[in-house]
Specification:
Helix content is about 50%, strand content about 15%. By secondary structure, the chain is of the alpha+beta class. It has 2 domains: about 70 residues, no CATH class; about 100 residues, LCCL-like domain (Ferric Hydroxamate Uptake Protein, Chain A, domain 1), CATH 2.170.130. It has a 5-stranded mixed sheet. The protein is elongated and about 110 Å long. The N and C termini lie far apart (about 90 Å). The N terminus is likely disordered.
């Protein structure tokens, strides 16, 4: 009789130990199984007791999984929302800093342009070219102005929500979808002309805000010397604003 009880306890311990997950607050039971015990030895009452325990353990595990999934999903949502708020705050700070620096930088750039033109009129081409090169370098260094990329698809999803400055050459021959916002594969210089931020054949600095992929209605519109096409669907995009 004693050996039968020990066998029953070993089988029950082994089953319950194997049924419990190693994490989430449960500790697996490590009772060594009795090699002489088998399910055939179990009386109906013991089988019923073990089955009830297994059902209870399964219900607890299912509740635990559902609860942890909800907690993780809520944490992911909060993290995404926090990232969006941080991106918005950073963008606002960058815009505010740009506006604060604008008068000083405008004076610097206007002075250098006047100096470049003066050297050019005097025939001092080396000096004029040196001033122009430094002017472009300063614009990129102080304002973070990037050169004209033509298109923006090389921007990774990490750029979503961020704002960049680009010096673009206004064009009318590039493909454009939407009407600000534009799809990410729209030609930047042509989109700038469409938005009225650049003139064909002339350079201008524009502010580009990258938009995450979601379903949007990119309506085709007739802009300034450019007519954009429409696109309906999920796509990353960008919004254009004046650099100020």
């Amino acid at each position: 009789m004693l050996e039968t009880l020990i066998g029953l306890l070993g089988v029950a311990a082994r089953r319950l130990g194997e049924a419990r997950p190693p994490a989430g607050g449960f500790t697996p039971m490590t009772t060594a199984p009795d090699p002489d015990a088998s399910d055939d030895d179990l009386p109906p009452e013991a089988r019923a007791l073990i089955a009830d325990a297994e059902r209870a353990a399964g219900a607890v595990r299912a509740t635990l999984r559902a609860s942890t999934d909800r907690v993780r999903a809520a944490a992911d949502d909060e993290a995404r929302a926090a990232r969006r708020r941080a991106d918005d705050a950073v963008r606002d700070l960058e815009i505010a800093a740009g506006r604060e620096l604008a008068p000083t930088l405008r004076g610097l750039f206007d002075g250098l342009r006047a100096m470049q033109e003066s050297y050019a009129r005097l025939g001092k081409l080396d000096e004029a070219l040196a001033v122009r090169a430094n002017l472009r370098h300063l614009r990129a260094e102080l304002l973070g102005v990037r050169p004209d990329p033509g298109h923006l698809p090389d921007l990774t999803p990490d750029a979503d929500g961020r704002t960049y400055l680009y010096e673009v050459l206004g064009r009318t021959d590039g493909a454009v979808w939407g009407g600000n916002p534009y799809t990410l594969d729209s030609h930047l210089g042509t989109a700038a002309v469409h938005a009225g931020l650049a003139k064909p054949g002339l350079r201008a600095v524009v502010r580009v805000t990258v938009l995450a992929s979601e379903f949007r209605e990119y309506a085709g519109t007739a802009g300034r010397a450019v007519t954009s096409a429409e696109y309906h669907g999920s796509s990353r995009g960008y919004r254009l604003d004046a650099a100020e």
